[in-house]
Design a protein that fits this description.
Elements (H helix, E strand, L loop, with lengths): L2 H7 L8 H21 L4 H25 L34 H7 L8 H21 L3 H41 L16 H21 L15 H14 L2 H10 L6 H12 L5 H6 L6 H29 L3 H16 L3 H13 L3 H13 L7 H12 L4 H13 L7 H13 L3 H13 L7 H13 L3 H13 L7 H13 L3 H9 L6
Helix pairs in contact: 1-3, 2-3, 4-6, 5-6, 7-8, 8-9, 8-12, 9-10, 13-14, 14-15, 15-16, 16-17, 17-18, 18-19, 19-20, 20-21, 21-22, 22-23
Organism: Sphingobacterium micropteri
InterPro entries: Mitotic_Regulator, Sel1-like, TPR-like_helical_dom_sf
Protein name: Sel1 repeat family protein
Length: 520
């Protein structure tokens, strides 16, 4: 290969400045690596791209050796540097600079401060592993030196991020401790555990109370008559009846009738009085000793007590039914909660979502799970989020399918399992969920849980983008800009970036700015 052919291979005019040659080589070198990754499904195409890459290396080596190029010069980074963690990337030229700011350090890995710390650490480690592998396998001295500098820069950025994460965790811990020192919210006392002792104590108390009442009546002392009640509950009625049957005296039954003339047991009280009038000789006997009950009386008493028990159970069931919210009530709660959430009043939104979720509303369960996943209005808990997503998914909620897929893909609340993530994404895709369609496209592009298939990834990105999903629009724009899974087309990339930017996607806005576009 001649020098003229070498310049032609690098798509540069003969005699181009060697620094420009070096930069051009690095750009084309990385583009070829991405193209090779993108056609791994086609062995013939992959072999052709690898051969072209070798010719590029040969051309660069020829120009480098012939002109004595300085191998220690740095090479600019390309988009590939950030592609390990996500399609969302930030471009930046490498240069000797002081310690980067937190924003710059995160951008180096294609991250933001809003992401989960565990996810940030995993992405950084993956990128460092990738750089190390590239450094160890490449043979070109200048490229090797460039990768070495990239590794140093990544480690420097990692130190800045590690320090920030430590401070963030310490701050969260202090906030949690401060919260723990506050007085806990007042809650109603829990009902005491029921004991069978009342079976023995209650009759004694009732007898004593009834006897005291009878003595006061006999001595001429009167007690204020109870005020008439228009709303006599079964509970009050049955309590008074228990007192009467426990004493089993004529005056006790008469007292019951004076309080509850239309009571549930009014007829039973009259029957008991009639029975006692035929067997009791005088009032003195009533005051000094209760009559002996025969078998028939005992059976009647048992039947009356059973009736009381049935009425109490019916009253309890009725009360429970009245307190249970209706479907209309639940839907109203969910609607109010969504309004509060949209207004960023997360704490109040969680308070309304919780009872609806407890009553089995799938939409509330999914939304509350999202709030637990991101710590909005509740204490952040990935495990609690997954539990709620699973409950909503059992009812066929497509958003819950997508969120479960995300949790499995990222190891949030469950062990990382890409195959399981794909399973849940597919369920949501079958229901037409645009976010799930985009996420499944990402899995196909990177071969996560499924065989790598860039054609299927492109198809899914396009489907999600056409359904208005801003993530699908961004990823499609990124693919056209880089030409990794589709032929490079800047105009098409700008078209999709603009669509995502109109929906407020900050990464798309940044991409357009880098391309000199401020209106969209």
């Amino acid at each position: 290969m001649t020098k003229e052919q070498a310049y032609e291979k690098l798509e540069l005019p003969i005699g181009t400045d060697l620094q420009v040659v070096r930069q051009k080589f690095n750009q084309m070198h990385n583009e070829f690596l991405m193209q090779i990754d993108g056609v791994s499904f086609n062995p013939a195409m992959k072999q052709k791209k690898e051969q072209q890459l070798e010719e590029l290396k040969e051309a660069y080596t020829l120009l480098n050796q012939s002109e004595g190029m300085d191998d220690s010069a740095s090479l600019p980074r390309t988009e590939r540097t950030f592609e390990q963690g996500s399609d969302r990337a930030t471009e930046s030229a490498s240069a000797a600079q002081p310690a980067p700011s937190l924003k710059e350090a995160l951008a180096l890995f294609g991250l933001t401060a809003l992401q989960d710390t565990e996810e940030i650490q995993q992405t950084i480690q993956q990128r460092l592993d990738q750089l190390t592998q590239q450094y160890q396998t490449i043979d070109i001295p200048v490229a090797k030196e460039a990768y070495k500098k990239e590794i140093d820069k990544a480690n420097e950025a990692k130190q800045v991020i590690d320090k920030w994460i430590a401070e963030r965790q310490a701050s969260e811990k202090q906030a949690e401790q401060a919260q723990q020192r506050q007085a806990p919210p007042t809650t109603p006392p829990l009902p005491a555990k029921k004991s069978k002792a009342w079976v023995y104590v209650l009759p004694v108390l009732l007898v004593v109370g009834a006897m005291a009442y009878f003595v006061s009546q006999q001595s001429g002392k009167t007690t204020p008559e109870p005020q008439p009640q228009t709303d006599i509950t079964a509970a009050k009625d049955s309590t008074a009846w228990k007192t009467a049957i426990a004493v089993h005296m004529q005056n006790a039954y008469q007292h019951y009738l004076s309080e509850f003339p239309e009571g549930i047991f009014a007829q039973a009280a009259k029957d008991s009085i009639a029975q006692l009038q035929g067997t009791i000789a005088n009032d003195t006997q009533i005051a000094t000793a209760p009559p002996t009950q025969d078998n028939k009386t005992t059976q009647q008493l048992a039947a009356q007590q059973e009736r009381i028990k049935q009425l109490e159970q019916e009253a309890a069931r009725k009360k429970e039914a009245e307190s249970k919210p209706t479907t209309t009530d639940i839907n109203s709660l969910v609607k109010q909660a969504k309004t509060l959430f949209d207004n960023k009043n997360y704490t109040e939104a969680a308070k309304l979502h919780r009872p609806a979720a407890d009553q089995g509303n799938a939409e509330a369960q999914n939304q509350l799970g999202y709030m637990y996943l991101h710590g909005k209005g509740v204490t952040k808990s990935d495990v609690e989020a997954v539990k709620l997503f699973q409950k909503a998914a059992e009812q066929g909620n497509s958003d819950a399918y997508t969120n479960l897929g995300y949790c499995y893909a990222n190891g949030r609340g469950v062990g990382r399992d890409n195959a399981e993530a794909v399973k849940w994404y597919r369920k949501a895709v079958n229901l037409g969920d645009a976010t799930a369609i985009n996420n499944l496209g990402y899995m196909y592009k990177h071969g996560l849980g499924v065989p790598k298939d860039v054609a299927e990834a492109l198809k899914l990105y396009l489907q999600a983008a056409n359904q208005g999903d801003k993530f699908g629009q961004y990823n499609l724009g990124f693919s056209y800009e880089k030409g990794d899974i589709v032929e490079k087309d800047i105009d098409e990339a700008i078209k999709w970036y603009k669509k995502a930017a109109k929906q407020g996607d900050q990464d798309a806005i940044n991409k357009l700015k880098n391309l000199g576009i401020t209106e969209y």
